[in-house]
Write a structure and sequence with these properties.
The chain is mainly alpha-helical and 91 residues long. The protein is 62% helix and 0% strand.
Length: 91
């Protein structure tokens, strides 16, 4: 290993050290954010979805009531037909 070569490489890096950064007195900067129209539309849509309930009570309340009463029945043929139709759509 040659030490002289190492010293020469080190001297190259020492000459490229950045100088002192001078501070400007009295200069102030402020950050600004601009949101595009598309971004605003997305935010509006997200707010609308967040305000909606996860479960539609007008649809689920009658089903819950019939389950509680023990009168809810599932038509197996209709269920199987719908299941196969969804399977065909996905393929």
């Amino acid at each position: 290993m040659r030490i002289e070569a190492y010293n020469q490489v080190q001297q190259l890096y020492n000459t490229r050290k950045p100088g002192q950064v001078q501070k400007s007195a009295g200069v102030s900067f402020s950050d600004q954010v601009q949101i595009s129209r598309f971004g605003k539309d997305i935010q509006t849509a997200k707010t609308a979805v967040a305000d909606c309930p996860d479960v539609r009570e007008d649809v689920t309340a009658p089903i819950k009531a019939s389950i509680k009463a023990g009168t809810y029945e599932v038509n197996m043929g209709s269920f199987a037909d719908k299941l196969l139709a969804k399977y065909q759509e996905m393929r």
